[in-house]
Amino acid sequence: MDGLLQAFGEAFDDLPTYTGRRPDAAYLRRLLASDGFIALVAVQGGAVVGGLAAYELQKYEQARSEIYLYDLAVLAAHRRRGIATALIERLKAVAAERGAWVVFVQADTGPEDAAAIALYDRLGTRSEVLHYDIAVCRGT
Hints:
- The chain is built from 5 helices and 4 strands, in the order H-H-H-E-E-E-H-E-H.
- It is an alpha+beta fold.
- The protein is globular, with a radius of gyration of 16 Å.
C-alpha cells in the first residue's frame, strides 16, 4: 500500500493527498482485510509502477454487487505498455469471482483525463452522468 500510495501521488501530481497524511499500518491492514476494498498493483523491478483501488458495493435491489474503480494510475515512465489495461482485466476477473455484475468508473471531462477516457472507451460503454459532491457537516 505504501508503494501504491506513492505511485498515485506521483502519477496524479498530488503527493500531499496520497502521502501527506498516510494511514497507519493497522488502518491499512483493516482496509486490506475488508471484503469491500480491492487493491491491485503492477510491480517492476521490485517497485510499484501502477495500480488501482476499487470498492465492492453490495446492492439492495438484487443479490449482486458492483465494483467501483476509484483510482487507477500508472507512472509516466511506464505508460503505453498495457499496464492499465492489464490491471482492469484483473479487476474484471476479481469482480467475476465475487459475483459482481459490472465494474464502473468515473472520469473527469478535462484534458487531464483524456488518456483515461480513451482507455475506458475501448473497454466499456460510456454513460453520460452528472456527479455531485455533497459536503458532510462535522461538529466543531
